Amino acid sequence: MSASKKKRRPDYERMIADLESGRINAFAVWHIDRLTRRNAELERIVDLVEATKAQFACVSGDVDLGTYTGRMVARILGAVSQGEVEHKAERQKAAYLQRALEGKAWGCGVRRYGYDSDGITIRPEEQKVVRHMVEHVLKGGSVNSLVTWLGDNDHRTSQGNRWASRAIVRLLLNPAMAGHRTYGDEKRIEVDKPDGTKQEITVTKEKEPDAFIVARDCWPAIITDDERRRLRVILKDPDRTTNPGGSNKRKYLLSGGILICGLCGRPLTGHRANSGLPGYHCRKTAPYGGCAKIRIAAGPLELDVASRVLARYASPVVRKRLAEAASPGGDVTLGNELADLEEKLEQLGRDYADPMIPMSRGAFLEANKSLAAQVNDVKGRLKQAQRSTALPEMVTPKSLAAWWAAAEIEERRGLILTVIDHIVVHPSTRPGFRGLDKDRLTYVWR
């Protein structure tokens, strides 16, 4: 095992333990850099030899750790070895960067799902699986249901493991699936020019994964750029984080910001009452920060919401108006608009940091606020358009009821959020009443 890395070396550690215990009193190496390439480890060995009086022999060179001169020679050789390791790492890093800038795929490591080990040639069967994942999520399907589908059909990762939600998200958001080459986590990198001079270049930061695109369209893509932008809006939506400390499977239909407290304006969260019945509560504890004064039972409320939502969505006039408001130019237009706005935000930050471009802090904050608001608006319209694609095309009361009964919780939420912006829950006006007090509810429709 390499002596230049900080990984554990069990046999080396066993040898050190045997020396410390007196089980052995001598050890030999071919060269000092075969024993260690880190000065800290060398000093530990020097102290050990001095304390135990153990005999040390080195085949390549006369290194006596029992004398001042021998220890000095060992330290010099150790420093040289450590310098060689660091220099080799720099050369390898430069070579990796050069390959990335040339758009070449990684030639080692774990094979990327959907491609052969060369990172370029598409595997048709795996491509079909990836395309199913993309279409499923873009139509409003959950990642958890994808995990179930992949397991039921015995589709495994490139390493032969069962799929997990995190692995699916990482795959779908990887720029390499769109044919792009990423590298590192530096925003500005220095490269060698053909004339021997240095040039500093800026590479594009991607939101997921944490890497930078340095070359585009380097190999056949399985996921288009527009699809990846739309997937990012869906999969990085904060509302999808249903339980930050545990399972990511949602248990309550109206959690995640659909219900708003009528007293403090904070979202209600799913929470069982002392009786054990499920309900929604304005919770005061961190990280919720509510007033803890509003509580409503889940069962009757969810039935009322379902009936109102299905009745409203059944109206052709409402569906037409929602579709026009969400995506007047289509999903692709919204995806490009989002990409342009995000680039403007990044450019604004670069301009503000550039001393050659005069810009006051007030002007920067105002421009940043305006662009951020536009980004949120486009993301909202894009999510609304994507929800619409997951909803049933044949809309009759009977077909809607059948769809609702068979739909997953995330699909039901997609329909709710298509027609409802939020619902305000006010304090109860009928103390002791066990049914649903509809006077407490203010529906804010889209």
- Principal-axes shape call: elongated
Class by SSE composition: alpha+beta
Strand order of the largest sheet: 3-7-6
Average pLDDT over all residues: 79
Question: What's the story with the biggest beta sheet?
Answer: 3 strands, antiparallel
Overall number of structural domains? 3
Q: What is the gyration radius calculated from CA atoms?
A: 31 Å
Number of helices: 14
Query: Which regions have little confidence, pLDDT < 50, spanning 5+ residues?
Result: 204-210, 242-247
| Number of strand elements | 13
Order of helices and strands: HEHHEHHHHEEEEEHEEEEHHHHHHEE
Strand content: 5-15%
Helix content: 40-55%
How far apart the termini lie comes to 63 Å
Brief rundown of the structure:
This protein has helices at residues 10-21, 32-35, 39-52, 68-101, 124-138, 143-152, 165-172, 225-235, 298-313, 316-326, 331-353, 361-389, 397-406, 409-419, and strands at residues 26-29, 55-58, 181-183, 188-192, 198-202, 204-205, 212-215, 259-261, 269-272, 278-281, 295-297, 420-425, 441-445. The chain has 446 residues and is α+β, with helices and mostly antiparallel strands. It folds into 3 domains: 10-101, Rossmann fold (3-Layer(aba) Sandwich); 124-236, Putative Large Serine Recombinase, Chain B, Domain 2 (Hect, E3 ligase catalytic domain fold), CATH 3.90.1750; 259-445, no CATH class.
Write structural notes for this entry:
This protein is of the alpha+beta class and 446 residues long. The protein has 3 domains: 10-101, 3-Layer(aba) Sandwich (Rossmann fold), CATH 3.40.50; 124-236, Hect, E3 ligase catalytic domain fold (Alpha-Beta Complex); 259-445, no CATH class. The chain has 14 helices and 13 strands. The chain has helices at residues 10-21, 32-35, 39-52, 68-101, 124-138, 143-152, 165-172, 225-235, 298-313, 316-326, 331-353, 361-389, 397-406, 409-419; strands spanning 26-29, 55-58, 181-183, 188-192, 198-202, 204-205, 212-215, 259-261, 269-272, 278-281, 295-297, 420-425, 441-445. Strands 3-7-6 form a 3-stranded antiparallel sheet, with helices on one face. A 3-stranded mixed sheet has the order 8-12-13. Residues 204-210 and 242-247 have low confidence and may be disordered.
